[in-house]
Design a protein that fits this description.
The complex is a heterodimer of chains A (194) and B (204). Chain A is mostly beta strands. In chain A, 11% of the residues lie in helices and 70% in strands. Chain B contains four helices and eight strands, in the order αββββαββαββα. The chains are: A mainly beta (194), B alpha/beta (204). The interface between A and B is large, with 37 and 38 residues. Strand 4 of chain A pairs antiparallel with strand 1 of chain B, so a sheet runs across the interface.
Chain lengths: 194, 204
């Protein structure tokens, strides 16, 4: 996952220098797995961060780039698992790293008011890696999902910056070693407008 | 300036996230695993007797090049073999001598594997941006661990594969990171688990 971190930092640095009529946000992200991902790691994730760069194109509309990183983790107690004629017992540590890279289209209603509701969609990819540690062995599967993401939220505008609160749902279609997987996130952070 | 601060905040958040990445196993016992495999076409229920050697061979060296077989210390082997026998008895099996035409032969074997690994300090590039000549030594760390495995196989002396070797009808493998001393409680628990999860071996 180091490459995801490098991409993350590179994109932040690059988009920080972009032109006016833009907004940039950092948000802390809490994740709640659904479906197959929930079967793999059921606890909520409190390890997540998301970065958005939006370029205003018309009144209230914006196109942008979103990068994120959500880590789901579960320590499974001692258990026995069966696969065909093989049974195996031990403790498991399960990690799911998810790094979405999305192009976004957003609409901000009442952008000059004190509260700005917004809605958006994102399309792109998400790199996911599942790693199961059992004994001294790691079992790793990964894939680049085709990713869709709807989003709803609002900005609370203050002098010079805004507080952002949003809810997103990431859905990635089956890819590589991994099945389709999705998760909700609740995000809280700051927005700076230029 | 605001954007620089925001970017810095973001980069620090990402690094903080990386720093609080969840941990894994804490104790060597956490890494113990038991794996069993059986031939689902083989009918264990109609069998009743087995034979087992009174020592446990270590898989090491090369017999074809003239190396002598090695065995784990008798004091340890006796405890392991007794535990295996008690589990087989619970499942309804009777231990007999090898020349008494047993239905199956249970063969235990053990081996150790030492893994040497290295990793580098991934902050190196970060420091390097500020201190071009840092560090003076390679930021690489070397460590190792040794795992021990006990393999138990059940073979039918009347059935052979295409290569002429007996077919393993059941395999049980116990694997864990070795400590400095033999821990009977730990290995007994793993042997028990191998048979607990293999109830298809039950004949009674």
């Amino acid at each position: 996952m180091k490459k995801a971190l490098y991409i993350f930092i590179f994109a932040i640095t690059a988009t920080s220098a972009m032109a006016q009529g833009s907004m940039m946000s950092w948000q802390y992200s809490m994740g709640f797995a659904t479906g197959n991902l929930k079967e793999y790691t059921s606890p909520a994730s409190f390890r997540g961060v998301t970065y958005n760069y939006n370029k205003m194109i018309e009144s209230g509309a914006a196109i942008g780039l979103e990068l994120g990183w959500n880590v789901f983790y579960e320590e499974k107690g001692y258990g026995t698992y069966t696969s065909g004629d093989v049974d195996y017992s031990g403790k498991q540590w399960r990690y799911s790293n998810n790094a979405p890279i999305l192009f976004t289209l957003s609409y901000f209603k009442n952008p000059d008011g004190s509260v700005t509701p917004f809605a958006g969609i994102g399309v792109g990819t998400m790199y996911s890696e599942r790693r199961t540690t059992m004994g001294s062995y790691n079992f790793i599967g990964d894939g680049w999902h085709f990713e869709l993401k709807p989003e709803l939220g609002f900005l609370y505008n203050m002098q010079g910056a805004s507080l952002a609160v949003s809810a997103k749902y990431y859905y990635g279609f089956a890819a590589g070693d991994l099945p389709a997987e999705g998760f909700f996130t609740i995000n809280v952070g700051f927005v700076v407008k230029r | 300036m605001k954007k620089r601060i925001l970017s810095l905040f973001g980069i620090l958040s990402a690094l903080l996230l990386w720093g609080c990445y969840p941990d894994g196993p804490e104790y060597t016992q956490d890494l113990d695993i038991v794996v069993t495999h059986h031939n689902s076409d083989y009918d264990f229920v109609v069998k009743a007797t087995y034979a087992m050697p009174d020592s446990i061979v270590k898989i090491t060296g090369n017999l074809q090049e003239g190396d002598r077989p090695e065995y784990i210390p008798d004091v340890n082997a006796e405890q392991i073999l007794a535990r295996i026998e008690s589990n087989m008895t619970l499942l309804g099996w009777s231990k007999v001598a090898l020349d008494a035409s047993p239905d199956l032969i249970l063969l235990p074997a053990a081996w150790e594997t030492t893994t040497i690994y290295y990793y580098y300090d991934y902050w190196y590039w970060w420091y390097g941006a500020y201190y071009p000549y840092y560090p003076y030594y390679p930021p690489v760390y070397v460590s190792s661990y040794t795992t021990g495995s006990l393999l138990m196989t059940l073979q039918d002396p009347t059935q052979f594969g295409g290569n002429g070797n007996p077919i393993n009808q059941w395999n049980g493998v116990l694997n864990g990171v070795l400590n400095d001393s033999f821990n009977a409680t730990r290995i007994n628990g793993l042997i028990d688990q191998a048979f607990t999860q293999s109830q298809y071996l039950k004949t009674n």
